Amino acid sequence: MSPPPLADRSTTEAADLLADVDVALLPTGATEQHGPHLPLGTDTRAALGVTERLDRDDCVALPPVTVGVSDHHRQFPGTLSVSPETFAAYVGEVVESLAAHGVRKVVVVNGHGGNDDALRRAARRLRREETAFVVPWNWWSNLGDEHEALFGRDHVGHAGAAETSVVSALAPHLVRDDVLAEADAGAADVWGVHVGGAMVLDDVADFSENGAVGVPSDGGTEAGERLLDAAVADLDTLCSWLAERSFDSLLPPERTG
């Protein structure tokens, strides 16, 4: 069964639920452009999809955070964004409120790479203050081999084959199949403009005509199911690792010497 969603419970039901779970799952995503063929909510939908497909009853699913750190997509209509500081503070305070109810181990199931630095910052603070132990986890982080086997490249890109596949598997009606050729034509091959090993330009409008990176038309439902299965297996492994450990054992070691 899927992890029970906290938001669907009453406060009295939540008391019983939170007393029985070991790990909370916080989906985080974005509302930002994903080329002409995918919805603005692609990242959130992917994070929710992986969360909901996890078959565990010792976890609880928190409501998703749907706007993230997306300033580098700002030139494309529909993109919403908050600062890294705001995002880190918001996620941190959500976790603090959960910890007050006794659940202090959290996996952030993240669907947007732009959130990474802010999530790490929040996780470090919460551990240092001994409030909660938070693991930021990107659903694609361990799928390089799977991605290469499916698409012939080990990097996921943006609105490319992987995300097109995942949305095809989760919500096929949201993939605009009629513009996939257009999406391919305007997509960049790699993320950013690089000179001498440095990324000198990283606004998406600097290097991608339509906001996509990769080959969107390579995506498909079957590939999406494979990627989702692999991601769910990784999340299950991570949740087992956390569930087996006491909160105190996850705190920073005391300074010696």
What is this structure, in a nutshell?
The chain is an alpha/beta fold.
Description:
This protein is α/β, with parallel strands linked by helices and 257 residues long. It is built from nine helices and six strands. It has a single domain, classed as Creatininase (Rossmann fold, 3-Layer(aba) Sandwich), CATH 3.40.50.10310. It has a four-stranded parallel sheet with strand order 2-1-3-4, sandwiched between helices. A two-stranded antiparallel sheet has the order 5-6. The longest helix is centred in the C-terminal third of the chain and has 23 residues. The radius of gyration is 19 Å and the shape is globular. The model has no long low-confidence stretch (mean pLDDT 96).
Q: Count every helix, treating DSSP H or I runs of 4 or more residues as helices.
A: 9
The residue-averaged pLDDT reads 96
Strand order of the largest sheet: 2-1-3-4
β-strand amount: 5-15%
CATH level-1 class: Alpha Beta
Element string (H = helix, E = strand): HEHEHEHEHHHEEHH
Q: In total, how many beta strands?
A: 6
The tally of domains stands at 1
Distance between the termini: 48 Å
The CATH homologous superfamily is named: Creatininase
Write the CATH fold name: Rossmann fold
> For the CA atoms, what is the radius of gyration?
19 Å
Relevant terms:
single chain; 257 residues; alpha/beta; Rossmann fold; four-stranded parallel sheet; 9 helices; 6 strands
Itemize the secondary structure elements and their pairings:
Blueprint (H helix, E strand, L loop, with lengths): L10 H10 L2 E6 L13 H12 L5 E3 L22 H16 L5 E6 L5 H13 L4 E6 L5 H8 L9 H10 L9 H7 L6 E3 L2 E4 L2 H4 L13 H23 L14
Helix pairs in contact: 2-6, 2-9, 3-4, 6-9
